Amino acid sequence: MKTLKDVALYAGVSVATVSRVISGNYPVKETTRKRVLEAIGTLDYHPNGVARSLKNAKTYTLGVLVPDIANPYFVQLVRAVEASVEKLGYHLLVASSDEKASKESELIRVFLEKRLDGMIIAPVSVTPATDWPQLIVNALPIVLVDRILEGIMIDSVREESRQSSKELVTHLLGYGHRAIGIVNGRTSTTALERESGYREALQEAGIIPPEDFMVRGDYDHKTGYLAGKRFLSHKEQAPTAVFCTNNLIALGFLQAVHELGYRVPEDISIVSFGDPFEATFQSPKMTIVVQNPAEVGRYAAFMLLEKLDGKPGKNVEVILPTVIRLGDSVRAPREPAQMYSN
Amino acid sequence: MKTLKDVALYAGVSVATVSRVISGNYPVKETTRKRVLEAIGTLDYHPNGVARSLKNAKTYTLGVLVPDIANPYFVQLVRAVEASVEKLGYHLLVASSDEKASKESELIRVFLEKRLDGMIIAPVSVTPATDWPQLIVNALPIVLVDRILEGIMIDSVREESRQSSKELVTHLLGYGHRAIGIVNGRTSTTALERESGYREALQEAGIIPPEDFMVRGDYDHKTGYLAGKRFLSHKEQAPTAVFCTNNLIALGFLQAVHELGYRVPEDISIVSFGDPFEATFQSPKMTIVVQNPAEVGRYAAFMLLEKLDGKPGKNVEVILPTVIRLGDSVRAPREPAQMYSN
DNA sequence: CAGATAAAAGTAAACGTTTTCTGTATTTAA
DNA sequence: TTAAATACAGAAAACGTTTACTTTTATCTG
């Protein structure tokens, strides 16, 4: 690949002049500018961004670290971030932590070494790994999305989760359900919040759910599928309604229900978090807390860009409101509610 | 951020020694190694990857350029690429061209300037933009995915498309359909191949489809939706079956059908390209050509890594086979087939 | 047309690494 | 105990930019 020096030689000027033509920040005589531009064209010169980044201490690249890049929720989020930052010339290094703290640490290290200008992270766990405090010290611009960390104040954007979970479960209670299960993630704040909303709703109804109604697994298809199989294989002791805390879990659960020959909502009612469009042609149409990952992404991008711009930044914690969209995945339990209250 | 110099100063050695400790490629006395490692730890030193890349002419970053990063097809593809290259220490810069040649050019330029080690691209158009030839000359390792370019030989991986399109349409013909529409993309090779398969099947049946049965738009939801509205708003002249050439188009078309109060396959039969899992709970279950983007991604990654390894490379053109999965989105047309043959 | 001033272009240092080339301890052999 | 060999460690150049500083060239004024 050609360098400034090659161009300079060809155009018969110094490298400084070529650099100035390219940057456009300095006066260059029109005739020489022409000559340089021509040289650049014929030599097919492309500036070396690496050298430039070294000199300028700026890479124009942002790191995005999500648990699963294939989860539609994060796909939407990432796309919104990309769309928000592209006009300012930033590009994205996207990576998946697979919900593993070790991979998260490793990738943060990579981001650091690559000298990315900032990062957007959906942390794996509530309790920050050892690397996190360093990060803060290093003052690298960070915005957390979807989840937060306990004990460390970092700018974050997420969607309301506890209250809406409570409402979902209350909705089920309103239909007469008493045996209500939950299929949840494990380590993230969202998982805790959603479980907390679930518990609150039940508590206010005087219900204490049995331990085996509460599944803690991963935010993935498999967890939902296995939970569905487990719940429904002993139908008599199964919950009459289930709260799936995430879109993938809901999908997996649904598949299990179908495979076992049961139907929603005739045999079991389901509510979940999800994307209204994704579910458009699903049968049945699910009653969901409508999530808006794109909005989360836009906010996160905005906040990160502000920081990059040198704005002071006062550790904002943005919580976006959510709404519930009713579908037809809920109806009253067929049998009289078994008594799990005490 | 700390530098080698800081560490060297702190440990009382030269920068060269610190560098050698880090790389591990040179002999360093155990006691000094310890001292250096300690310095690195207490100073929280992270090597500057930018400087390293400049020196080594290697960024360990690959560019991935797809038309739409939110399309599940490309999401799967990208994820497979990521999974394939991560163990070798490569990371991904992902960007969307939005099916715009201008954006594609721009992003290729960015990739070039960032000195990425290689790129994987799903080109927007069959006819290469002016930048493409340069790319080849620059000998930057490239692998095309999903689509190819006319007139330039570049390694590529894609799925068989023409023959399977033909089979899909033949399947429709077998059910007695004669008025068969197609909703397609515009510029890519896949669009051409799918249309070509469609035409062949019809031709062999002695049918020449009217121009307005052939919609050419984008590979997106909207194109499918609009086509659906258009076809079905004049039901009497509408096709009795439609071939949607892509998952998003199919989804959009389906939505239009639903909104207009029609049903599949009672009122109209549909076949398409798609992902068998995505469609699991769709009603109806679509008859599709099963695509396997992950496999495409794995192949592309493998081929790119080979090139990066300095393997000669002989311009391979990989075409992965596809299979058809029958669903229940097709049945015989209700009214006697109108005659479009001649 | 000389001298002052403004404009344009050149020189060289710096960014933070890696690595070749040297130099100095330390070990080994005689 | 000394010469040769080996093992470590340092100095400095190089990667390709940007930019402060300096020098050259062009322009202006009287």
UniProtKB/TrEMBL annotation, chains A, B:
Q: Could you name the domain of life of the organism this protein comes from? A: Bacteria
Q: Name one Pfam family in it.
A: Peripla_BP_3
Q: Which GO terms describe its molecular function?
A: DNA-binding transcription factor activity; transcription cis-regulatory region binding
> Gene3D superfamilies, alphabetically?
3.40.50.2300, lambda repressor-like DNA-binding domains
Q: Which UniProt keywords apply?
A: DNA-binding, Repressor, Transcription, Transcription regulation
The HTH lacI-type domain, residue ranges: 2-56
What positions belong to coiled-coil segments?
none
Concerning InterPro entries, the annotation shows: HTH_LacI, LacI/GalR-like_sensor, Lambda_DNA-bd_dom_sf, Peripla_BP_I
Q: Which PANTHER family match?
A: HTH-TYPE TRANSCRIPTIONAL REPRESSOR PURR-RELATED, LACI-RELATED TRANSCRIPTIONAL REPRESSOR
Q: What is this protein called?
A: LacI family transcriptional regulator
Say which species the protein is native to: Sulfobacillus acidophilus
